[in-house]
C-alpha cells in the first residue's frame, strides 16, 4: 500500500515536471538581430516605393538588413514579379510597429516569386497571397519574436484562393493558428518546409490537388491538418497526399486562446495538443510514409465536422470525412499523458478503447453519412487503414451517436482494412 | 555709326522692356487653372493646386466651376474625420447609370473624384485638412493618388508611401490625440477593389439617390443634379433607383440602418468580388442570406480577431458577437475595418450592438 502511494507521488511529481517541461517548450528562441545593419528610413521608404512602383517583370532585391516597416508591403495585381532577399537570416522585414493593416505583406498577381527573406511580427498574417496564379515561397522564414505568444499573429504563410502554389524550404513558427496555411486553393506543393512552435504546423484547408512532403512539423499543438470548412466560396476541397514527413512531438500547449478560456469560433481553438495529424471533413486524402512520433494525444485523427458543434448546413459542402487512406506510416507513442486541456483531448484520454490515459495512434470519431450505408462495419465512408503491426497499435473508433452520455469506443480496425489511393497531379508546378 | 548703334541698342532695350511688361501683365491676367487644363499624360501632379479643383484660398475648399460636391447617404468612418467630396468630368461626356443590376455608375475616362479629409476642430480649435485623395480614371482604369496637406494649409503634396500624422481633434466635446494613418498607395486597393480592379466605393446609385443641399437654397436629388450638370446620361426618375438609408437617421428601421452601416464600412471588402471574399462573410446592402452576413457563422481565419466568441453575429448577444468585438478594437489584427481607422467609432459600435441585441 505504502509502496503504491509513493509510486503515485512519484507519478505526480513526474507529471508536474513534465508540465513545466511542456511549458518550457513554449519558450521562443529569438535570433539576435542587434548586430545587423538597421535599415535607414530612406532605405525603408525606398523599399516601400519599389513595391508601389513595381510593374510586370520587376525584380525587387532586398539587401541584407533589419527593416522596421511602418507600413504594409503590397504587390498589387502584377505579373512576373520577383522579390528576392539576401537570405532567411540576412534580410529581415519586421512589422512589429504597424498601426493599421493586419498582414505584413499582401500579394496579388501572376507568377510571383518570393525568396530568401524573413518576415517578423506581423500583427495578423505574415504573408498573405490572394487571387494568385503561380505563387512561390522559397526559403522564407515567417515568425514572431514576442516572448508572450498570445500576442502572435494568425498565419505565418497564407496563400488563399490561389492557384499553382509552391512553398519550398520555408520555415514557419509561433503562429497562433497555422504556420503554413493554404486555403481555398488549387494545385499545391508544400515541401522541404519546417513548421514548429505553432498551434497548427501545416494546414491544407478547402484545397484541391495538394501534396505535402519532406516537411518537418514538430513542437506544434498539432502537426499537419487537412480540413474542409463550411460557408466559404471554395468549399469542396479534395485530393491531398501527405507523405515522407516527420511529424514529431507536437505537444505544444494550444495558445490560440488563453488556457483559461473555452474555445471560440475558430476551429483551431478546439484542437488538443499532442495531435500528429488531424483530418476533418476531409475528402480523398492519402497519408503515407510519414514518421508520426511521440505526439502525446493521437498520431492521426480522422474526424467529422460534427465534433465542432457548429452548424453544418452549408451549400456545396459535406461535414463528413470520406475516401481516406492511411498506410505505411511509422508511429511511436511517448511516455506522456494525453491532453486534458481540450474537450476532445479529455474524451480521448478518458474514453478511448485502450484504457484511461493511453495515447492513441489512430482515432476515427465514427460519424458517418447514414444515407451512404447503415452499418459502420461496411465502412461506408471508405476510411482505409493499412499500418504494419496494426494489432499492437492503439486504434479507437468512437460511436458518439448517443450523445455525450453514451460514448462507445471500439478497438476493432478490421472494417477499415482496405486499400485506396489518391491521385494528385502537381507536374505543372515543377517549373515554378 | 556709333549713333545708329546706340539707337539700335535703345530700340532693343525698349522692345525687351515691352516684352517683359506684356509677359508680366499677361501672367497677372492669366485665368486660374481649372480641371479642364489637366494633362492626363502627366498625372499625378506633385501638388494638389496644379489640378485647379479649388478657387481662392485652398484651405477653404471652394470648388471650381463644374467641380460638383456630393455625399453618399451613409458614410465610411475614418477616425471622425469630416469629408468633402467632389466629382468632375470633362465637357461633353457623362457617366452611365443604366446598369441597375449592379448598381454601379460607370464613369467615363478622365472622371475625377476628390475627397478631402479634415477636422473642423483640430489643434487650437481650428480647421485642419489632413489629406486629399483623388480617384482619376485614365485609359479605362481608376488610379488613386493621395496628397498630404502642409502645416500652413496652403498646399498638399503627392505621397505614395503613406504617412503617420499626429492629429488632435475634438469630437462630441471629447479630445482625441491620434496618429492618423494615411495609407500607402497600394493599400488603397485593400478597400477600393472589385475583381482586383481599383474601383470607387461611395458613388453608387443607391448612395446618391437622395437630396443634398447645394447651397443658395438649392436642395436637390443628387442623381438629378448630376444629370442636370451633364454628369449622368440615361437617368430617368429617382423612384426607379434603389435608395439606401442614412445610418444616423433614427427614424429609419434599426435593421436597415445597421445594414447601411455595414455596407458602407465593410461591404466594399466583404463581398464576393473583393479581398475579404476569403471569409465567406458578405456585408453588402443587397445580401439576403443571414449566414452570409454572419448569423451563427463561425470565423475562418480570424485568429486573435475572434476574441472569446464563437460567431460573427450571435443573435441577441451583441457583446458576444465577433462583429462588435472587432469594431471595438484598435489592435491592427483585431480591428475591422483593417485599415482606415485608429480610433473606435463609438456610435457605430452602439448601432451594431443594438441591432444584434434585438435579433
What does this structure look like?
The complex is a heterodimer of chains A (432) and B (359). Chain A has 432 residues and is mainly beta. Chain A has a domain at 144-429. Chain A has three helices and 29 strands. Chain A has helices at 2-24, 41-53, 343-351; strands at 59-62, 65-68, 73-85, 91-94, 105-120, 127-130, 133-143, 157-160, 163-168, 171-173, 178-183, 186-191, 194-196, 200-205, 208-213, 216-218, 222-227, 238-243, 246-248, 275-280, 283-288, 291-293, 298-303, 322-327, 330-332, 360-364, 383-386, 395-399, 408-410. Chain A has a 29-stranded mixed beta sheet that branches. The longest helix of chain A is centred in the first third of the chain and has 23 residues, at 2-24. Chain A is globular, with a radius of gyration of 22 Å. The N and C termini of chain A lie far apart (67 Å). With 359 residues, chain B is of the alpha+beta class. Chain B has two domains: 35-240, no CATH class; 254-357, no CATH class. In chain B, helix 5 crosses helix 7. The interface between A and B is large, with 55 and 48 residues.
From the alpha carbons, calculate the radius of gyration of chain B and give it in angstroms. 25 Å
**Terminal CA distance of chain A:** 67 Å
Give the averaged pLDDT of chain B, no decimals. Answer: 90
Give a short account of the largest sheet of chain B: 6 strands, antiparallel
How many helices of chain A does DSSP assign?
3
Query: Which structural category fits the helices and strands of chain A?
Result: mainly beta
Rg of Cα set of chain A: 22 Å
Mean pLDDT of chain A equals 92
Total beta strands of chain A: 29
Secondary structure category of chain B: alpha+beta
CA(first)-CA(last) distance of chain B: 103 Å
**How would you sum up the global shape of chain A?**
globular
Biggest beta sheet summary of chain A: 29 strands, mixed
Low-confidence runs of chain B: 21-29
Beta-strand content bin of chain A: 35-45%
Low-confidence stretches of chain A: 1-25
With strands numbered from the N-terminus, the spatial order across the biggest sheet of chain B is 3-4-6-7-8-9
Counted beta strands of chain B: 16
Amino acid at each position: 500500500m505504502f509502496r503504491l502511494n509513493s509510486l503515485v507521488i512519484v507519478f505526480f511529481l513526474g507529471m508536474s515536471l513534465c508540465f513545466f517541461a511542456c511549458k518550457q517548450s513554449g519558450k521562443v528562441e529569438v535570433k539576435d538581430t542587434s548586430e545587423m545593419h538597421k535599415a535607414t528610413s530612406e532605405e525603408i521608404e525606398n523599399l516601400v516605393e519599389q513595391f508601389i512602383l513595381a510593374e510586370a517583370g520587376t525584380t525587387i532585391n532586398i539587401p541584407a538588413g533589419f527593416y522596421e516597416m511602418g507600413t504594409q508591403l503590397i504587390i498589387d495585381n502584377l505579373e512576373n514579379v520577383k522579390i528576392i532577399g539576401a537570405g532567411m537570416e540576412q534580410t529581415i522585414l519586421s512589422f512589429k510597429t504597424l498601426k493599421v493593416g493586419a498582414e505584413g505583406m499582401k500579394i496579388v498577381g501572376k507568377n510571383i516569386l518570393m525568396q530568401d527573406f524573413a518576415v517578423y511580427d506581423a500583427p495578423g498574417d505574415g504573408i498573405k497571397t490572394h487571387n494568385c496564379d503561380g505563387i512561390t515561397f522559397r526559403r522564407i522564414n515567417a515568425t514572431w519574436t514576442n516572448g508572450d505568444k498570445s500576442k502572435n499573429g494568425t498565419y505565418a504563410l497564407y496563400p488563399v484562393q490561389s492557384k499553382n502554389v509552391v512553398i519550398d524550404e520555408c520555415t514557419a513558427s509561433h503562429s497562433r493558428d497555422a504556420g503554413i496555411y493554404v486555403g481555398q486553393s488549387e494545385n499545391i506543393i508544400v515541401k522541404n518546409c519546417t513548421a514548429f512552435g505553432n498551434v497548427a504546423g501545416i494546414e491544407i484547408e478547402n484545397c484541391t490537388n495538394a501534396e505535402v512532403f519532406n516537411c518537418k512539423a514538430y513542437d506544434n499543438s498539432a502537426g499537419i491538418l487537412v480540413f474542409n470548412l463550411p460557408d466559404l466560396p471554395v468549399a469542396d476541397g479534395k485530393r491531398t497526399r501527405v507523405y515522407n514527413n516527420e511529424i514529431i512531438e507536437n505537444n505544444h500547449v494550444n495558445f490560440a486562446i488563453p488556457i483559461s478560456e473555452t474555445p471560440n469560433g475558430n476551429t483551431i481553438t478546439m484542437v488538443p495538443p499532442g495531435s500528429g495529424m488531424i483530418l476533418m471533413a476531409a475528402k480523398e486524402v492519402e497519408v503515407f510514409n510519414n514518421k508520426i512520433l511521440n505526439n502525446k494525444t493521437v498520431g492521426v485523427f480522422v474526424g467529422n465536422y460534427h465534433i465542432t458543434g457548429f452548424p453544418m448546413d452549408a451549400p456545396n459542402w459535406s461535414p463528413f470525412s470520406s475516401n481516406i487512406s492511411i498506410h505505411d506510416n511509422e508511429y511511436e507513442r511517448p511516455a506522456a499523458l494525453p491532453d486534458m486541456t481540450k474537450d476532445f483531448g479529455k474524451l480521448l484520454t478518458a474514453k478511448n478503447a485502450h484504457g484511461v490515459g493511453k495515447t492513441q495512434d489512430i482515432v476515427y470519431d465514427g460519424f458517418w453519412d447514414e444515407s451512404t450505408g447503415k452499418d459502420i462495419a461496411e465502412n461506408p465512408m471508405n476510411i482505409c487503414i493499412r499500418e504494419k503491426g496494426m494489432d499492437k497499435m492503439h486504434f479507437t473508433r468512437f460511436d458518439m451517436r448517443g450523445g455525450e452520455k453514451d460514448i462507445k469506443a471500439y478497438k476493432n480496425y478490421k472494417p477499415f482494412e482496405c486499400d485506396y489511393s489518391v491521385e494528385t497531379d502537381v507536374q505543372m508546378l515543377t517549373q515554378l | 555709326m556709333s549713333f545708329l548703334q546706340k539707337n539700335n541698342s535703345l530700340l532693343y532695350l525698349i522692345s525687351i522692356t515691352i516684352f517683359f511688361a506684356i509677359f508680366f501683365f499677361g501672367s497677372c491676367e492669366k485665368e486660374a487653372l481649372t480641371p479642364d487644363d489637366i494633362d492626363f499624360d502627366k498625372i499625378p501632379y506633385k501638388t494638389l493646386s496644379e489640378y485647379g479643383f479649388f478657387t481662392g484660398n485652398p484651405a477653404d475648399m471652394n470648388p471650381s466651376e463644374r467641380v460638383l460636391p456630393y455625399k453618399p447617404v451613409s458614410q465610411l468612418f475614418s477616425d471622425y474625420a469630416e469629408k468633402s467630396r467632389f466629382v468632375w468630368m470633362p465637357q461633353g461626356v457623362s457617366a452611365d447609370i443604366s446598369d441597375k443590376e449592379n448598381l454601379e455608375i460607370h464613369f467615363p475616362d478622365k472622371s475625377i473624384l476628390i475627397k478631402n479629409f479634415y477636422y473642423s476642430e483640430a489643434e487650437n480649435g481650428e480647421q485642419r485638412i489632413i489629406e486629399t485623395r483623388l480617384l482619376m480614371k485614365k485609359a479605362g482604369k481608376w488610379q488613386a493618388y493621395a496628397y498630404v496637406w502642409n502645416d500652413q494649409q496652403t498646399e498638399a503634396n503627392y505621397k505614395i508611401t503613406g504617412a503617420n500624422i499626429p492629429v488632435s481633434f475634438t469630437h462630441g466635446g471629447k479630445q482625441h490625440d491620434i496618429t492618423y494613418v494615411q495609407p500607402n498607395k497600394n493599400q488603397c486597393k485593400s478597400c477600393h477593389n472589385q475583381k482586383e480592379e481599383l474601383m470607387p466605393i461611395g458613388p453608387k446609385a443607391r448612395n446618391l439617390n437622395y437630396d443634398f443641399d447645394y447651397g443658395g437654397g438649392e436642395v436637390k436629388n443628387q442623381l438629378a443634379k448630376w444629370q442636370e450638370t451633364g454628369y449622368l446620361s440615361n437617368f430617368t426618375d429617382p423612384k426607379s433607383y434603389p435608395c439606401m438609408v442614412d445610418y444616423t437617421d433614427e427614424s429609419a428601421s434599426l435593421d436597415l440602418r445597421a445594414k447601411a452601416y455595414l455596407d458602407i464600412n465593410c461591404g466594399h471588402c466583404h463581398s464576393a468580388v473583393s479581398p475579404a471574399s476569403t471569409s465567406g462573410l458578405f456585408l453588402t446592402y443587397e445580401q439576403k442570406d443571414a449566414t452570409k452576413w454572419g448569423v451563427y457563422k463561425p470565423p475562418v481565419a480570424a485568429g486573435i480577431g475572434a476574441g472569446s466568441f464563437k460567431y460573427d453575429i450571435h443573435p441577441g448577444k451583441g457583446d458576444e458577437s465577433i462583429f462588435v468585438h472587432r469594431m471595438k478594437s484598435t489592435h491592427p489584427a483585431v480591428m475591422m475595418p483593417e485599415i482606415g481607422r485608429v480610433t473606435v467609432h463609438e456610435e457605430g459600435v452602439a448601432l451594431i450592438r443594438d441591432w444584434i441585441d434585438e435579433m
